[in-house]
Design brief:
This protein has helices at about 15-25, 40-50, 65-70, 90-100, 135-155, 175-180, 195-210, 225-240, 255-260, 270-275, 285-304; strands spanning about 10-15, 30-40, 55, 75-80, 105-110, 125, 160-165, 165, 185, 195, 215-220, 245, 265. The protein is an alpha/beta fold. It has a domain at about 5-165 and about 195-220 and about 265-280: 3-Layer(aba) Sandwich (Rossmann fold), CATH 3.40.50. The longest helix is centred in the middle third of the chain and has 20 residues, at about 135-155.
Length: about 300
């Protein structure tokens, strides 16, 4: 165990799926303290009592009770709070507090590749124009600009991560197939990238070790693929019949699903490889889903 002078503290605004995996990985090193926020009293209790994580209530209507005290020792902050029409709630409520912190080495904001909008299947990189075509993408683009303004004004050690679709054990096409909710919709030419949670965590940790404030990173795998191919592969792994292919024009889709098919692009991920030295564990959906299945089978055995 390192002495206190070597310790770091991660504070997560929005302690969800990503922060959960990141916190677990960091705690394995032995010199990290973890804190974060949740909107739910029951989750706060679980995080504090079961996980030994400093957990605080925070939402649009409920700021941190004593932000400068709670954040005082934070060396790293990860922001994954969902934005609204006004932008990112963490920025709006506590951005100025964060700018005053003396010990901060790194801050990451989790955005989305949705800020690029639709490119008719073309490629985007971090220098591509921001032109979202959905409310979610527009909110993220606004939030990015808000955090970048703090970086420029206060030299905040900010890093923006534009995420493709995150998946992992318990949260992948395998689970969609198991519930019987999977459909294979065919929209010719449509493809999208994903990122396995383990690769995302490795990228965040690599950035923490090599901060480059003001930088933006695309977080995506090597292979943009139609969603119906992913569902088919998940069915094959589970030995479940593959649903029939349904033409997009005939599909009865919820608005959020239809908005997914309106964005069509392929994402360059060269920057995380060149600048952060990343070698993806799961460069495509096949290796990622295979890993998810193994992890879920292992967990099932432990539970029995």
């Amino acid at each position: 165990m390192s002495d206190n002078s070597d310790r770091n503290k991660l504070f997560c605004f929005g302690f969800g799926y990503v922060c959960d995996y990141l916190a677990y990985s960091l705690k394995q090193t032995g010199n990290w303290d973890i804190a974060g926020t949740t909107r739910n009293n029951e989750k706060r209790r679980i995080l504090r009592n079961n996980r030994k994580i400093e957990a605080y209530l925070f939402n649009n209507e409920q700021p941190l009770a004593d932000p400068l005290y709670f954040l005082e020792d934070a060396t790293h902050i990860l922001v994954s709070t969902p934005p609204n029409d006004k932008g990112d709630p963490t920025f709006l409520i506590h951005g100025e507090d964060i700018a005053k912190l003396k010990n901060l080495k790194w801050i990451g904001y989790l955005s989305t590749i949705g800020v690029y909008g639709d490119r008719n299947g073309g490629w985007v990189d971090e220098d591509s124009e921001i032109r979202p075509n959905s409310k979610r993408g527009s909110r993220r683009a606004k939030s990015e600009q808000q955090w970048l303004s703090l970086h420029k004004e206060y030299n905040l050690p900010l890093h923006i991560f534009r995420l493709a679709g995150i998946y992992g054990p318990g949260r992948s096409a395998l689970d969609t197939v198991k519930t019987g909710a999977a459909r294979r919709v065919d929209k010719p030419g449509h493809a999208f990238n994903r990122i396995h949670i383990d690769d995302l965590v490795n990228i965040l940790i690599a950035s923490m070790k090599n901060p480059n404030p003001g930088n933006i990173y695309n977080i995506a795998d090597d292979r943009a693929t139609p969603s119906h191919e992913v569902i088919e592969y998940a069915c094959n792994l589970l030995n479940i019949d593959v649903p029939p292919l349904l033409p997009y024009s005939e599909a009865d889709l919820a608005p959020i699903a239809r908005s997914f098919y309106k964005d069509n692009k392929r994402v360059h991920n060269d920057k995380i490889k060149k600048e952060l030295g990343i070698k993806l564990l799961y460069p495509d959906y096949k290796s990622g889903l295979e890993s998810c299945l193994i992890a879920e089978q292992k967990q099932a055995k432990q539970n029995n």
